[in-house]
Amino acid sequence: MFSITHFSKANTLVTFSALLSLVLLSLQVFAQQTPYEEPFFSMVNHKEPMQQGDNSHRAKRIEAISETLLGAKYEDGSLGEGAHGVYDTDPLIRFDVFDCTTYVEAVVAGAMSQSKATFEKNLKQLRYKNGQVEFIYRNHFPSLDWIPNNQDKLTDITHLVAPDDVQLAQATIDKPSWYKNMKANRLKCESEHSLSCKQRLAQLQQEGRHFQPENSTIAYVPLSAIYLKEDKLKESKSKEGESKDVNGNSINHRILDRIPSGSVISMVRPNWNIKKWIGTNMNVSHQSIAIRKGNRLYLRHASQTHKHVIDEDFITYFSKYLDNSSLKGFNVLVLKDRQY
């Protein structure tokens, strides 16, 4: 017979075991937390009184929020629709790794928010068309999806930055072909050769039927307007605002000075010819945040080259793409007043 004494001892052991498990689980969760999340939300929650149209406040807020993520690791394709996602079950929100766009999204959503709850809501609105969290509604292509679908939050000021030099990039974004080119590694199956993985991949590839190839345009400041050649120098000979970079290129600071700190900078490659690899051409290859430190302009971004979030001198960064590069310029967006 099982006595009351035996039951009490057993119950005590079960209770102790349960408590120990909870403690160990808590320690494990704490160990997995990143050093970025707490300071990030500390800045998100920090709200100062401001006036409508106070651009300096907007810039300082974005500068402070983006700075908390400096050093975070770069990892491409690290975010998805969460555990209940049909195709991409990577976390919806994480702070240990970013790619270029998810870093920009985190910073912009943070600047728009007052708490963790509003951050999640705003992040969904930025990343997905109408905030609908599904793979097919994710803003995959900056010039076709991300920028047009966020016009209510962000204003394109490229034409104000370089009114006499702005150009348009055009590309046909072929989403049906892009979906058809999806590979099993996109799904992160336990076994890419399993029947279930093959079925999910076939289903994902068929999602392209919801779309048609679409023409996409994006305004950009050409690098030729920043790094001036002899003919441009002669045209602006009587004007101030040029200097030399480390490579001896003449720099047009009049344009750079019009880029507000905290702007979203998208690197533009007009009709970027990568269809044979991913199924479609594109217009945008990278995204970042413009940051001013004193009189110098920097790009704060999740760098694939450096493998973490880093600040790079704006002039030095783009000077690498002057010779025989498909990168021709950059687009400039600013957060609208009512969004923060």
UniProtKB/TrEMBL annotation:
Gene3D superfamilies: putative xylanase like domain, Putative xylanase like domain. InterPro entries: AmiA-like, Papain-like_cys_pep_sf. Keywords: Signal. It comes from the Bacteria. Residues 1-31 form the signal peptide. This is DUF1460 domain-containing protein. It comes from Marinomonas mediterranea (strain ATCC 700492 / JCM 21426 / NBRC 103028 / MMB-1).
